[in-house]
Please model this.
Amino acid sequence: MERQQKIVLSVLVLGTLMGALDSTIVILAFPAIADGLHADLLTTMWIILVYLLIMASLTVPLGRLGDLFGRPRMFNLGFGIFTVSSFFCAISPTITMLIIFRGIQALGGALLESNSGAIIADIFPPDSRGAAYGYNSMGWTVGATLGIVLGGVITTFAGWEYIFFINVPIGIAALYLGLRYVKGAARTRASLDLPGMVLLTAALSLISYAAIDFAGNGLTVQSAAPALLGLVLILVFAYHELHTRTPMIDFESLRRPILKYSLLAAFFQSLGYLAVVFLITMYLQGIRGLSPLDAAILLTPGYVVGSVLGPYMGRLSDRLGARVLATGGTLVIALAILIYMMLRIDSPLSIVLLASFVSGVGTAMFYPANNSAIMANARMGDYGSISGALRMVQNIGVLGSFVLAITVASASIPRSLAFEIYAGTSHLAGNVTGAFIQGIDAALMVSFLLLLLAGVMSWSRGTEHRGAA
Model:
């Protein structure tokens, strides 16, 4: 790896780390934010939900903007938006203002995420991208780890405002490095598909809102109507994309088995795996009575293992291809879920440590290999939109995981109590505990089946034949 490549990759990893950190750092601060801004818990939940919603809705359009106007330019713009909005998040006087600035922050995060993978594909040849994506995956796992741990530490010892203030000096330094070193990339001569962007954003927003409302209030007209309208808009979007001269998503590319099945594997892996994190967090806080910070520390080994092994697994995927390694990763994560299913009311917490370690190995196998396969099989002019499509399916999976965890768990206890357990403001006792464990087991089984489905999709991609560019 050349010196310039190392510097650029370091900046990209930092951008990925910041986006990951802010997807988890607010979780343990929910109670403090709700109390400090005098907001109810369900409203406060939108601090993370609006972030995930915008990340899911805009990664493809913003990746396409990178194709059209230059990926480094869009990436650095993302750093600027993310940094400035973080400052305004920290000084928000009301919960409404905080949610608005979190949405703007997510816009910056989406610019970072949708273009970082494409820039890696720009500067690394196909036979060495696996290692680069391994380091980028390490940025995600390190960021998620820091977010979980720092969220508890900073909120406890400094105040919730500082979980946003911490982004400001990091963002300024990263923006300087990005403007200096992340430069130049091929642009695609095409028009921006504005109708497609509007249709996709509207469809995903409606579906995401419906899913979140269903998780909080059950099946009502308010959740069913937006979901149906969103599905209709998805069909309209697909029709539009198939008949426009400059589509936002190149459906011709998605006909390639490796690309299509790699994206499907990414979606089902995200949908299945993230639900596990939510469920085990609820178990540790709601049943075992652990504090949010103590619960997070027990889950940290998995992130650490994933961070350390990611680059090595990435290099291995360059030699072996993604099929075996990524498929094996989904099966290892599925094994971790089976270990989690051993948990009962008085089970030793060492089970959580073991399962977390195993899941870390699985994610280190899956992410670099699968991401590398996707970008290696995308056309150069579509790196941004395909990178955005990858982040989109992953972020939709995160939203789906949250809905799955809350919905299945709340089938055995009131939904409001399930939300409070997840946020760490309540825990269970008596007969309700057994019912809640049964709900968690049912949700874990669904996650297990989703991981197996991800494995099937991963294996179905076929064998790759990569060569140096």
About this structure: Residues 193-245 form one domain.
